Amino acid sequence: MRLKNKVAIVTGAASGIGEAIAHTFAREGAKVIATDIQGDKLAEIIDNIQAEGHEAIGLVHDVSSRENWFGHVVATVVGTFGKIDILVNNAGISASQPFELQSEELWRKVYAINLNSVMLGMQAVLPHMPETGGSIINLSSIAAITGTAGAGAYTASKGAVSAISRAAAVDYAVRKIRVNALVPGNILTAMSEPFLTSPEYQPYFLGRIPMGTYGSSQDIANAALFLASDESSYITGIELPVDGGWTAK
């Protein structure tokens, strides 16, 4: 097992990529703390993981709240397990709207969930990572590298996630804490499938992907597993695209 006895927090774990990461980490031996704002869906995920014989707990969590991070999630994890080895900042939202119509209110909401949560999560877990090191994985996006039409606030927030990951990687390398940005491409999830498979948009998106297919949540979970494991012990400060070649084109 590649994560045996590791303690891992995964945010946004009630569906899609976060759900796949939580399941994958648990199967690889991690004690998984799955968090999400959607309590009912999260409870189902935890039940499924535990039914497979793995260790996991679920915490309802507003990732944009400092108090939720410090007073609820991290306090519970440290009180239960005594340490935090891995943090996956996966929770995020999209916002498709013409650039000139995006309000300050929308920007604040997108930044609070997509970027502030990453900063708060790192601040909360860093004091509790072992002297032997740890791994922080922040979910960015191909939009941070190539830009995405009609999603200015989202694109800007994900660009900032990549940048703060590089900065934290340099700051905490001396403590053997690795910080990397994982960069998903067009991934089929329950949320994205109606859009990505619509007759209007599918030819465009598939035409941009050199491999000619969409990715799956499991593709992202496999990459997250590599970055979380000791197999990537000398890798920090990178943006790892999992995009079928989108950003190479």
TrEMBL record:
Indicate yes or no for the key word Oxidoreductase.
yes
InterPro entries assigned: NAD(P)-bd_dom_sf, Sc_DH/Rdtase_CS, SDR_DHRS6-like, SDR_fam
Instruction: Kindly give the PROSITE patterns that the UniProt entry links to this protein.
Output: ADH_SHORT (PS00061)
| Cross-referenced CDD domains | SDR_c
Q: Which UniProt keyword terms apply here?
A: Oxidoreductase
Q: Is Disulfide bond among this UniProt entry's keywords?
A: no
**What does the sequence similarity comment in the record state about its family?**
Belongs to the short-chain dehydrogenases/reductases (SDR) family.
NCBIfam families assigned to the protein according to its UniProt record, in alphabetical order: PRK07231.1 (NF005559)
This protein is called: SDR family oxidoreductase
